Amino acid sequence: AQSVSQHNHHVILSEAASLELGCNYSYGGTVNLFWYVQYPGQHLQLLLKYFSGDPLVKGIKGFEAEFIKSKFSFNLRKPSVQWSDTAEYFCAVRGPISGGYNKLIFGAGTRLAVHP
Amino acid sequence: GAGVSQSPRYKVTKRGQDVALRCDPISGHVSLYWYRQALGQGPEFLTYFNYEAQQDKSGLPNDRFSAERPEGSISTLTIQRTEQRDSAMYRCASSLLEIDSPSDTQYFGPGTRLTVL
CB–CB of A98 and B45 under 8 A? Predict the structure, then answer.
């Protein structure tokens, strides 16, 4: 079955550390890629998305992600995390991999805890 | 409203009871989606609507689950004869476009946490 893998389920960092969260998907065709974030007590929010064009995507709050087609990856990065980045992060993909552009397939999520 | 709203936010019910979960999409959004998220997992697709038409219900786990959107706006997800395995976060999302568009984006509501005792 087509799937999305997030390799790190729990990540603990100190403030100012650099962050990279891995996301891989098991399909070689056209895909749209997303990172969603859920802060404690809040709903899922869109962090950034890739549809086409420049494979390096800038999102909100200093986050970026790079689409590497040859590696089927869309890793999320931030050079210096803050305590307020503590949240759960979900990678998602859609396209033929999910049965159409109206369905998202999500990874299992990564819980990030940032210590002051 | 400014975003997708869902009610109730929390629902506790006894096994065998029916429950109805409500979703109010962003104004003007024509597509509406339901997902279910088990503990420790990412959301899984259940069904989606364009206007009032249910376009895909392939993710509904069995015939106890149904959804409707009669006027193309508010949607209700109904679970009949609930079972403990139905306990999960039920998430609703909406998007602006009506076609299977690669440029469309889904915006999520706060979810309804369902617990079946």
Answer: yes
* Out of A4-13, A24-33, A62-71, B36-45, least confident range: A24-33
What are B54's strand-pairing partners? B49
pLDDT of residue A85: 97
Structure tokens at A95: 């396209």
- SS3 state of residue A111: strand
Residue B112 and residue B6 in contact, taking contact as beta carbons nearer than 8 Å:
yes
Residue B45 sits at the chain A interface (C-beta within 8 Å) = yes
Confidence of residue A28 (pLDDT cuts 50, 70, 90): low
- Tens digits of residue pLDDT in B44-81: 999 999 999 999 999 999 999 999 999 999 999 999 99
All residues at 6 or more sequence positions from A82 whose CB lies less than 8 Å from its CB, including other chains? A15, A114
Instruction: Please indicate whether, in this complex, the C-beta atoms of A104 and B43 are within 8 angstroms of each other.
Output: yes
Residue A98 has what pLDDT? 75
Cis (ω within 30 of 0) for the bond into B8? yes
Q: Does any CB of chain A come closer than 8 Å to the CB of residue B105?
A: yes
